[in-house]
Amino acid sequence: xxxxxxxxxxxxxxxxxxxxxxxxxxxxxxxxxxxxxxxxxxxxxxxxxxxxxxxxxxxxxxxxxxxxxxxxxxxxxxxxxxxxxxxxxxxxxxxxxxxxxxxxxxxxxxxxxxxxxxxxxxxxxxxxxxxxxxxxxxxxxxxxxxxxxxxxxxxxxxxxxxxxxxxxxxxxxxxxxxxxxxxxxxxxxxxxxxxxxxxxxxxxxxxxxxxxxxxxxxxxxxxxxxxxxxxxxxxxxxxxxxxxxxxxxxxxxxxxxxxxxxxxxxxxxxxxxxxxxxxxxxxxxxxxxxxxxxxxxxxxxxxxxxxxxxxx
Length: 312
Prior knowledge:
Layout: H1 3-29, E1 47-53, H2 61-80, E2 84-91, E3 108-114, H3 138-143, E4 168-172, E5 178-181, E6 193-199, H4 207-223, E7 230-235, E8 247-253, H5 256-265, E9 288-293, E10 299-300, H6 301-304
Antiparallel strand pairs: 1-3, 1-4, 2-3, 2-10, 5-7, 6-8, 6-9, 7-8
């Protein structure tokens, strides 16, 4: 080895050693003091979330989409880009026959993959510590069938069939917890008509009791139908808790006709605690919501969004 290189390396080692000794001596000479962090830092907590939004009717789509792509996507990326790995929007497919009987939302479903809990210091469904708030107005709340006096995401659930259809915002584990059918399915097996649903067990019914019925009665009855290709589910996380729902599930079909056929065939034992007589035994829009979706998003915003660039 070149003698000059050896000498230079030795000099560097001696310098680092000297600096470490000086630093240690200085630390030992100082009185001990308790150092308190001035900020509350978050643990690594990967999770995913689902957001359902509806519109009054198709005439509201131009205004709704203008808000989404002109204001909301840019606002959202500005807020959470450092700790979100996926931010995608799926356009809801048209409602099948009797779709409103299942609390179906008709506009978009937005999916996030989070690295942390975005609401860790917030008592509402909006984060603290953000420089800019989100852009929206009363008109947007009206066309998406939401209360106009509770902000973009109401803290209290007020959903009903004929009344408000508030934004659904729910968090789930990163991976599906329960796999009932179709674990060997691949993207080569054909189109997927996804029925994404969430439901809330009646007050006074524990999640354990409700889940026992779901796993032993509801899921098996649907899984045995030939029209069902895939059935997966997870508990909705209690932290962050931004909606009343207890469980999320996806049930896949080839198309809407297969869904409609399955709904005429399915026989699920009604739970003793049900307060709604018709399958799926949850009141639509109040305790049961859903959307019909493709398996491919309209836009994966973190990769595709380039701003609100209009036509000429």
